[in-house]
Design a protein that fits this description.
The protein has 161 residues and is of the alpha+beta class. The chain has a single domain, classed as Trafficking protein particle complex subunit 3 (Muramoyl-pentapeptide Carboxypeptidase, domain 2, 2-Layer Sandwich). Helices cover 52% and strands 19% of the residues. A 4-stranded antiparallel beta sheet has the order 1-2-4-3. Strand 3 and strand 4 form a beta hairpin. The radius of gyration is 17 Å and the shape is globular.
Length: 161
C-alpha cells in the first residue's frame, strides 16, 4: 500500500516527457526568432537538439557503443504503448531499415499547432542520436510524417570499417 496521499507514483512516458519539452522549446524558439532572427534561431535550436540527442544516447547506452539490433530495441521502446506503428524491413549486423506508419509524436505536435517545431525537435534528433549510439552508422531519413509524407522511412547502415 502506498503511503503517498496522492496515490502511487506513475512513470512519465516518453510522449508525456516530449509534450512538456516541446512546449518549453517552442516558447524559447519563438523568443529566439524575435530576438536574433529566424536563421540564427534555427541554428541555435538545431545545436541544442543535437546536444539533447547525444545526451540521450549517452544516457541510454551508458557510454558503450551499441549495435543496430540495440538501436531497433530503442525504437521499439519509443513506440511502445501505441506511440509508433513500426514496420521492420531489414535487420542484420550491417543494415537496419524500417518505416513508421503512425506517429503519436507527430499527432501531438500537430494538435499543439507546432508541427514545424516538431520536425526540428524530434525528427532531426534521430540522426545525431543514432550516430552517438552506434558509432560509424550512416543514417538516411528520407521522409517524415510531420513533413507531409504518409510514413517515415529510416535506413541505418554500418559501412566497412
Amino acid at each position: 500500500m502506498s503511503t503517498c496521499p496522492h496515490g502511487p507514483k506513475q512513470a512519465m512516458t516518453p510522449l508525456d516527457r516530449r509534450a512538456i519539452e516541446v512546449r518549453v522549446a517552442s516558447a524559447f524558439h519563438e523568443a529566439a526568432v524575435e530576438i536574433v532572427g529566424h536563421e540564427n534561431a534555427e541554428a541555435v535550436f538545431a545545436k541544442a537538439v543535437e546536444a539533447l540527442a547525444c545526451e540521450a544516447a549517452e544516457h541510454r547506452s551508458g557510454g558503450d557503443a551499441l549495435s543496430l539490433r540495440d538501436l531497433w530495441e530503442v525504437w521499439q521502446d519509443l513506440g511502445a504503448d501505441n506511440r509508433l506503428d513500426l514496420s521492420l524491413d531489414t535487420l542484420d549486423e550491417r543494415v537496419l531499415r524500417f518505416h513508421i506508419t503512425r506517429c503519436a509524436y507527430a499527432e501531438l505536435y500537430r494538435d499543439l499547432g507546432i508541427a514545424d517545431i516538431g520536425v526540428a525537435f524530434s525528427c532531426r534528433r534521430d540522426k545525431p542520436f543514432a550516430e552517438a549510439l552506434v558509432p560509424g552508422v550512416k543514417v538516411e531519413q528520407s521522409r517524415t510524417i510531420l513533413e507531409g509524407a504518409r510514413e517515415c522511412e529510416f535506413a541505418y547502415t554500418l559501412e566497412d570499417q
